[in-house]
Amino acid sequence: MSNSETRIIPARTGVAFEVRSGSRLKIINTYGSQVLDTWAFAAADMDEYMSMEHTRSATSRIIPGVGDTYVSNRFTPMLSVVEDTSPGVHDTLMCCCSRKTYERLKFQGYHDNCNDNFQSALASVGKHSPFTPGPLNLFMNFPVSAEGVITREPPVSRPGDYVLFDVQTDLLMVISACPQDIQTVNGAGKMPTDAAFQVLNQATTS
Q1: Which residues pair with 79 in a beta bridge?
Q2: Which of 4, 9, 34, 36 is nearest to 19 (CA)?
Q3: Which residues sit opposite 70 in a β-bridge?
Q4: Pair 177, 168: CB distance under 8 Å
Q5: Largest CA distance in the chain
Q6: Can you say how many angstroms the Cα of residue 96 is from the centroid of all Cα atoms in its chain?
Q7: Strands, E assignment, 11-135
Q8: What single DSSP character describes residue 62?
Q9: Residue 48 neighbours by CB distance under 10 Å
């Protein structure tokens, strides 16, 4: 991929790609309300992956923000947040949607889902994971009340909002444009949309 080339993440599908240490990764919410389930693996070792529970332990935050770093299950720094033009509302608590998710929602038949997107994206680059780690759900708005109750609200991000990361080690990234169209996960219109990403040099302005 040429530097700063914009690549589309088609609605309802997943993509996998490598990024190198020292580059920057810009993930763009093109239409403003698309949730992006995001995973990272050490490029040389699929047993090491970006871990939400380890990141919460390392940052002492439920939603890491600018200046924080997402780490692996071995506490290796992976992605550092450089800039976030959205209101900073993301999710590190929820699993990705799967076939069972839509069965629980009483959907009849097969529904595309982030778990299958994850596996299909890995297969497209000749990789496989025996399980699906908990994702970073970019732009997802699932607030937690003082009583510990999680509610599902539409994203508060806007068209063109993005998160810019410093890549701390060579990574294999997987991103799924969540296909959820039953609840308001992807906005009040319940309409999954395309999103995009760019890989930039450190010297490239955002």
Answers
A1: 70, 167
A2: 4
A3: 79
A4: no
A5: 50
A6: 10
A7: 14-19, 23-29, 36-42, 45-49, 69-71, 77-84
A8: S
A9: 18
State which H helix or E strand residue 172 sits in: strand 171-177
Residue 148's alpha-carbon distances to 60, 145, 181, 199, in angstroms, are 17, 5, 26, 37
**pLDDT truncated to tens, each residue of the chain (206 aa)?**
445 799 999 999 999 999 999 999 999 999 999 999 999 999 999 999 999 999 999 999 999 999 999 999 999 999 999 999 999 999 999 999 999 999 999 999 999 999 999 999 999 999 999 999 999 999 999 999 999 999 999 999 999 999 999 999 999 999 999 999 999 999 999 999 999 999 998 655 44
What type of residue sits at position 187?
G
Instruction: Name the 3-class secondary structure at 84.
Output: strand
d(CA 139, CA 177): 11
Alpha helices, DSSP H only, in the chain?
A: 52-59, 99-104, 114-124
Q: How far apart are CA 71 and CA 153, in angstroms?
A: 27
163: helix, strand or coil? strand
CA nearest to 1, candidates 108, 145, 99, 125: 125
Tell me the HSE value of 180 on the side-chain side, using a 13 A CA sphere: 27
